[in-house]
Amino acid sequence: MGNNFQVSMDEFLPLRDVVFNTLRKAILTGELKPGERLMEIHLANKLGVSRTPIREAIRKLELEGLVIMIPRRGAEVAQITEKSLRDVLEVRRALDALCAELACERITEEEMEHLKEACREFEEAAKTKDLTIIAKADVALHDIIVKATGNQRLVQLVNNLAEQMYRYRFEYIKDESQHERLIEEHRIIYESIMNKDSEAAAKAAMLHIDNQEISIIKQIRLENRQK
Questions:
Q1: SS3 of residue 33 by DSSP
Q2: What does the alpha-carbon distance between residue 75 and residue 223 come to, in Å, rounded to a whole number?
Q3: How far is C-alpha 85 from the geometric centre of its chain's CA atoms?
Q4: Cα–Cα distance between 116 and 122 in angstroms, integer?
Q5: Which one, of 173, 41, 150, 51, lies nearest residue 98 by Cα?
Q6: Structure pTM?
Q7: C-alpha–C-alpha distance, residues 222 and 27, integer Å
Q8: Phi and psi at residue 196, in whole multiples of 5°?
Q9: pLDDT 10s digit of each residue in the chain, 227 long?
């Protein structure tokens, strides 16, 4: 089990919520890996809490589909399945297309500059080969487009989904052969928004997701074969 995740106390949240958020983040970022067993005693000792909030957190994670209960084995981090991936990306595809369309109409000159800079920063991040840095640069770029819509409801929806996207984003970025394509797709999205071409921007945003889906499914199948 990874030793990177720690409980970060929040004075405004009950302990069970803090434990839930800590474990959830560890699963979404891949610190707790698919198939890894969640041992209550071990986690309680690691996070310095009793077993009760651990048990409650595991139950909530099961409801979210991030954890599964296996007879005689207990709780395990759920595997990434093609179905769970498709469910998330179907929704993300529609939302990203809408964000790109609205950004064409509403983006400010300052935001356009930020988007141009974010494309450049993603290129630099890709050179580092550091997955965390690349993922962060990718999120920052897409956040500018989402914010440019000026639609608070849309921002909330995308943010809710973004958490579930973490798992898949890391899987995608692992595939270095896709980095050049990612840079090119970001450039096309940027240019379409700059030219206020909402049709081209929506199309580019959807293609961006379609290519992620193809690549991640390839990774899932490869990892399943290696087991």
A1: coil
A2: 21
A3: 11
A4: 10
A5: 150
A6: 0.80
A7: 20
A8: 55, 35
A9: 445 666 666 667 889 999 999 999 899 888 899 999 999 999 999 999 999 999 999 999 998 889 999 999 999 999 888 998 999 999 999 999 999 999 999 999 999 999 999 999 999 999 999 988 999 999 999 999 999 999 999 999 999 888 778 788 888 888 888 999 999 999 999 999 999 999 999 999 999 999 999 999 988 888 778 76
